[in-house]
């Protein structure tokens, strides 16, 4: 300590109001208004003996900084900082929980390797799968690692990253690549995701369709088209433009079949009795409803709207697949440069 | 090409368009007014009702943030072209 010996009888009134002032506070006390010292009042009253012993004139910055080096002051400062950090973290977590349901997100990423492999094979070839119902475990859906029919967000996010990298690779093969292209492709795909989700949510709201489908479920199901895009891009790599179109046609049929089978159970599960297992859609669903009268208008939140929404989803997915990939496939050598995107 | 900036601009323009539909001068003249008593309770779930409800709530919620966003976008476009 480079400070002179303390005078224990004197306590400056500036930051220790508990003690009676022994005289008018000297004007140099203003230099003591440091934030770290204010903690002395709240949780370290025992230290007043030490703090009260700092009345001596300390106007030079060197002496103030040497006071800041004292271990006690540093401890106080660290404790205060920790308190602020804890409060800040709590506030941030509260706000975050309001917007992003983190615990729900954890459900969607609870996958394992076997699930991923089987789900990918299912998306590519769904025609032999028999049981499409999601298993429930006391009214909450079972985690994806135990049930192949449950939606997950792992495959869509990995598909998104793979799509961006594959797009960069294909652009590089056509000598159209630059490092900014990766950013452009990534933000473009992200903008399409946001736009598509907004479209579906607004459609569901405006038509007043009530479904048991949550937003994250919808995000998961719309993210499965990245597998279609990647497989058709790979087919385009191997066999040129015709290979791309064949791959796109086959995998979009498979994806539409998969989505229709899966979403039919989710969307229409709130309505009446056992569905007919036929794949043809315009059966009159409200004929089986015991409460309907001979009315033309579909019931509010009704089955017909859900069916139309399902068809809408099943049709826009392949369209978006095509729209997001056609500019990446190499055109045959006779056509010149492809369109700049 | 749809980038994030394009999407942002498009949503800003659409929100502006929704917010300039004036309640008294325009909507009631056409019959899209939000306070008419002629709507029976069986009309509550029609698409027109839902859309008008959506317009009204968008207008209420985004009036103030839209001012700020518009000012920022205008300054951004002035400075960076």
TrEMBL record, chain A:
Residue stretches spanning the membrane: 153-172, 184-206, 218-236, 307-325
Membrane topology, from the record: Multi-pass membrane protein
Transmembrane helix among keywords: yes
Entries under InterPro entries matching the protein: Yif1_fam
Subcellular location: Endoplasmic reticulum membrane; Golgi apparatus membrane
This protein's UniProt keywords: Endoplasmic reticulum, Golgi apparatus, Membrane, Protein transport, Transmembrane, Transmembrane helix, Transport
Region (Disordered): 1-29
Keyword Transmembrane helix: yes
GO biological process: endoplasmic reticulum to Golgi vesicle-mediated transport; protein transport
Gene Ontology cellular component terms for the protein in this record: COPII-coated ER to Golgi transport vesicle; endoplasmic reticulum membrane; endoplasmic reticulum-Golgi intermediate compartment; Golgi membrane
Pfam families named in the record: YIF1
Domain of life: Eukaryota
PANTHER family listed in its UniProt record: YIP1 INTERACTING FACTOR HOMOLOG YIF1 PROTEIN, YIP1D-INTERACTING FACTOR 1, ISOFORM C
Protein name: Protein YIF1
Protein's organism: Bombyx mandarina (Wild silk moth)
Taxonomic path: Eukaryota, Metazoa, Ecdysozoa, Arthropoda, Hexapoda
Gene this chain is encoded by: LOC114251906
Automatic annotation (TrEMBL), chain B:
The keyword Transmembrane is assigned to this record: yes
GO biological process: endoplasmic reticulum to Golgi vesicle-mediated transport; protein transport
Keyword Membrane: yes
InterPro entries in alphabetical order: Yos1
Predominant location category: membrane
Signal peptide span: 1-22
Domain of life from the UniProt record: Eukaryota
Cell location: Membrane
Protein task: Regulator of endoplasmic reticulum secretion that acts as a key determinant of brain size. Required for secretion of extracellular matrix proteins. Required for correct brain development by depositing sufficient extracellular matrix proteins for tissue integrity and the proliferation of neural progenitors. Acts as a regulator of the unfolded protein response (UPR).
Protein name in the entry: Immediate early response 3-interacting protein 1
Source organism per UniProt: Bombyx mandarina (Wild silk moth)
